[in-house]
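As noted in the main text, all predictions were made from sequence alone. Below is one such record, for Heavy metal RND efflux outer membrane protein,CzcC family.
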Amino acid sequence: MATRRNRDAAGRLLLAAAALIVSSGAARAAEGPPGATVESLLALGERLNPAVRAAGLDTTAAAAQAEAAGALDDPVLTENYQNYHSGGLFSMNFITISQTFPLWGKRDLRHRAALSEVDAARGRERAAQDELDAQIKIAFARYYAFTRALVVNRQIQTLARKMRQATMVRYGQGDGAQSGVIQAQEEETNTVIEASRLEAERESAAAQLNALLARPPGAPLAEPMRLRPIPAVLPRVESLLDRARSGNGAVHANSAAIDEAESRRRLAERAWYPDVTVGGGPVVQTNAPTGFSAMVSLSIPVQFGAKRADEDAQTARLDAAERRRDGTMATIQAALAEALARLKAARDVESLLRRQRMPQADALSRTTLASYSQGHGDLAAAIAAEHQMHDTELELLRTETDEQTELATIERLIGGDL
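Prediction:
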């Protein structure tokens, strides 16, 4: 009976495990592939990108080293045996354990320098994450633009097909030339060629996204739904620069490097002060009771040249770290001003395209095609109107891509969302 109950319990356990596996697989299938929004891709990149994961491991390694940075060196075990012949055999055996203690705050300075290195590693990790986020945002904008361009191309193909049909009707009624039919067919063929080019560009953008996510090049991506909104009011470059001082990973790493260099410079100055070594242990003697010995020693800092050279080196490293931080801030300031100006210009262009040129091009295309279909108008004018609408749609998509590129650049520089 007990065996049967055990078998029944094991069977129920296996069924429950199988149901759990099936349900989790169904949930993943229901979620579908990533790519509908840029947020889904950013979350994957944070988990999967090798460069970001390597930067995180560097931070972990630096933190592990910092834990032992202020620890004492290993103690030293010394055995000293002495043997004398003075009317008889006499020997002494000194067993001593000694420990060196750095004084004058040297251990604390070493620990501070190691903690600063941890902060620098965190800054580099943040910079790697921000750089990856910017690349994903830009690649997603391209993926979205080429996906939408294919939709526009299909609309243009429909218009070109209608135009060709209208041309053939007019030619059949004796109201058009054969050259017009050929020209309309050529226009329809051009839209098919353009579709092939756009599809290749879309696949290229998808492959770039998959590479950033450490996925196979042909891994499926969902159809992009929307781009991130552009802020209606853009901040001034001064406020962006303030955010970069506190949020930019490279600036954080440079500031931490300055703190580390300052700690090591102060440590080099303390090298002129001696360290103390304390020891003690039993003394085993022949034909005598066991005694005890104690010792205290001080290091003598007489290597003046080496200590001065180390002081000069640490001072130079401190100056270099400060100059490096200043250079990074100057580069960020110039890049922020440039990206903000380009974002403003792209936003203005998008507004003009949406409010003026798009309605004008759409109205002209509809009117010209309708007129030509009714036997009026010129084929060249109809084709020109079609091209104008197509070019306006593509220009709008390029402008949106430019906006997303500059927005991603600004957010990378300030280390957060705008």
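The CA atoms of residues 79 and 194 lie 87 Å apart. The two ends are 68 Å apart (CA to CA). These features were considered when defining construct boundaries for the mutagenesis experiments described in Section 2.9.
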